[in-house]
Specification:
The protein is α/β, with parallel strands linked by helices. The protein contains 15 helices and twelve strands. The chain is globular. Bound molecules: adenosine-5'-diphosphate.
């Protein structure tokens, strides 16, 4: 008799030059392995994996692998693993447009709809869709679920979604979509276990990584967010400028004669921490530097979070809890402290020892607004969505 095999779910997050992946038990949603492939398009390489099943994925990925070949390589490793049965796959898809407000089981009609959204996220959506097609090519009957970065914010009231532009353009979908939705979904899933009743109240979540945004949660639903039509809006980021005067963009084109491509390069790749410091897009490098511009970049980063948090608070009508997540949010006590200082007027106070230790609750006991540090996890909500959407996984 063949021993029964453990059902697993594969989660894929395909970026422009990388594929992050995770395997979860379909029974318990325990993570069995998380890892990544990097350098796709130049020299593809396995970037390592962690977890009980990490040994399934060792070196041996052909250097010339494109996204499809890298996905096939992963699937082949899973197919050959003793004791595992792949029962479904879930994908991070950056854009769900106006209509996808929740994860969806993928079929031909869904793929047509997702292809039509490529102009809204031309740098990311094609890679996400290529991963879906690679899986269906290699494993035709495998159920697949798409989970969107935008979907979580479809609960925002209309005024939080529309821009003050001609209504015809709004009707054509030029609205604030917001991103980092999977990260916010995860925070919403775990926060009740950490903050109790306050998790249902007025909460600001600060996702501060290479990309950065804030989300205002009320009753566990997004009511406002800082990213907009694209992921360029809102906070200052590693290389992105965040919100700036649209007139400045026009000036660069009309008065300086720049092409759209040159402006895009400046705003998406040469701004943010990198542009202001002139040193690095990496917060750790800037924290270790004593250059005045590094300090100014970090000060501006915190200032922008404080300013936008004030706007989120106004949308919420108050504040019951504040959550930090993602690379900077989870690990930089100094940046958290500068942000908290700027928000002290809200009743937010950090305990220096807890903050330095990256504790789960870093506010003082008497602070009126508790502050939490919660590790980001954009794969687990995808695994959870697969379990809920695919019967008998
Ligand atoms: P991504 O948005 O690509 O998922 P991360 O969430 O990993 O990125 O966040 C990356 C950012 O977190 C970088 O700016 C990095 O410098 C910063 N970071 C990571 N660890 C630390 C640390 N110990 N102290 C300060 N910043 C950190």
């Amino acid at each position: 008799m063949t021993p029964s095999k453990d059902a697993v779910i594969l989660v894929l997050n395909a970026g422009s030059s990388s594929v992050k992946f995770a395997l979860f038990s379909a029974e318990t949603l325990q993570p069995l392995c998380r890892g990544g492939i990097e350098g796709i398009g130049s020299r593809a390489r396995f970037g390592g994996a962690s977890g009980a099943r990490a040994h399934l994925f060792e070196d041996g990925l052909p250097e010339d692998s494109d996204h499809a070949a890298a996905t096939h390589w992963l699937l082949d490793r899973i197919r050959r693993a003793d004791g595992l049965r792949l029962s479904a796959a879930g994908h991070r898809v950056v854009h769900g447009g106006p209509d996808f407000a929740a994860p969806v089981v993928i079929d031909a009609a869904v793929m047509t709809a997702l292809d039509a959204l490529i102009p809204l996220a031309p740098a990311h959506q094609p890679h996400n869709l290529a991963a879906i097609r690679a899986v269906s090519g290699a494993w035709p009957d495998l159920p697949q679920v798409a989970c969107f970065d935008t979907a979580f914010h479809r609960t925002m009231p209309r005024l939080a979604q529309i821009f003050a532009i001609p209504h015809e353009l709004t009707d054509q979908g030029l609205v604030r979509y917001g991103f980092h939705g999977l990260s916010y979904q995860h925070i919403t899933d775990v926060l009740p276990g950490i903050a109790g009743e306050r998790a249902r109240g007025r909460v600001i979540v600060a996702h501060l990584g290479h990309g950065a945004s804030l989300c205002a949660l009320h009753g566990g639903r997004s009511i406002a967010t800082t990213m907009g039509f694209t992921a360029l809006d809102g906070l200052m980021m590693g290389m992105r400028c965040g919100a700036i005067d649209a007139g400045l963009v026009l000036h660069l084109i009309e008065q300086r004669g720049m092409t759209p491509g040159q402006v895009s390069e400046i705003l998406n790749r040469r701004s943010g921490l990198l542009g202001v410091s002139g040193i690095s897009n990496d917060a750790r490098t800037l924290l270790a530097s004593d250059a005045p511009r590094a300090a100014e970049a970090l000060d501006l980063f915190a200032y922008r979070v404080v300013r936008e948090a004030g706007s989120m608070m106004a949308a919420l009508g108050g504040l019951d809890a504040f959550v930090f997540t993602a690379g900077i949010g989870e690990r930089s006590a100094r940046i958290r402290a500068s942000i908290a200082e700027g928000l002290a007027w809200t009743g937010l106070r950090l305990d220096a020892t807890r903050n330095a230790a990256n504790d789960t609750r870093i506010s003082t006991d008497d602070a009126t607004v508790p502050v939490y540090v919660v590790p980001a996890d954009e794969e687990l909500p995808i695994g959870r969505a697969v379990l809920s959407r695919v019967p008998a996984v």
